[in-house]
Design a protein that fits this description.
nucleotide-binding, GluQ/Sye, protein biosynthesis, 3-stranded antiparallel β-sheet, alpha/beta, Glu/Gln-tRNA-synth_Ib_cat-dom, 3-stranded parallel β-sheet, 10 helices, EC 6.1.1.-
Amino acid sequence: MAAYPPDSRQPVFRFAPSPNGRLHLGHALSALSNEALARRFGGRLLLRIEDIDLIRCRPEFVDGILADLDWLGICFEGSVRRQSEHFDDYGRALASLQARGLVYPCFCSRQEIKAAVAACEAENGKSWPVDPDGAPLYPGFCKGLDKAEAEHRIATGEPHVLRLDMARALAQAGDGLGYELFDEAGRRCFVPAQPARWGDVVLARKDVPTSYHLAVVTDDALQGVSHVVRGRDLEAATDVHVVLQRLLGLPTPLYHFHALLIDADGRKLAKSRASESLAELRAQGVTAAAIRQRLGFA
């Protein structure tokens, strides 16, 4: 990694959990990593609640997040930004992309896509390409749909998502897409982005007028985030964020990806697998100091 002169502006970090469950040790590692690096580089630390999923995200989980972070002793500056209060911001970003012909409606369900991919694999004897998360790339059934037909189906209330036309997006974004990684010493290195491996990603869901990708790049820009510290499981998603940042004229932060905590079965800790929460550890008498020591932040 090559060393670069420090940025003249004060760094801004953020911890951005989703309130669809209680925080576990993996979240504590991410929050404490942000705290440590913000302190090391003389930066500010912000808290954002990523609650665009209005079905899975619940108020009691927001309260739990705030209680867990207070227990850990992590201090954040300014007010907490809640994504559910800023759908207008994401709508403006989406409209900007739509105006450039980069977004199209897709009426395919996940089941229909899965069935079509399975049929193609059976017919050709070849595996269908998948994205970095292991999901099959969208076959593009709705990509060439007649505009009038699409508008009629939308007007009649047919469920649909909005997808980014990745080929057009990359053509408009131009060359040199990538981002800079930084380490604990402040050294940086450039990483070329590979957005094409994600295919035509969803930018607005059927039940939510945005997506994680669109919301996170919009929020980071509006909050002035300069340094993003998150787990390695989100490293590949940065490819999508970089192309959106270029298209929307937003700055690309520096990135740092920390290691993941693994359970006894070799899987990363996750709310969906009911990994032991910080609240459960606290109820067992574990102290915040013990958590910090356990995670290397004594």
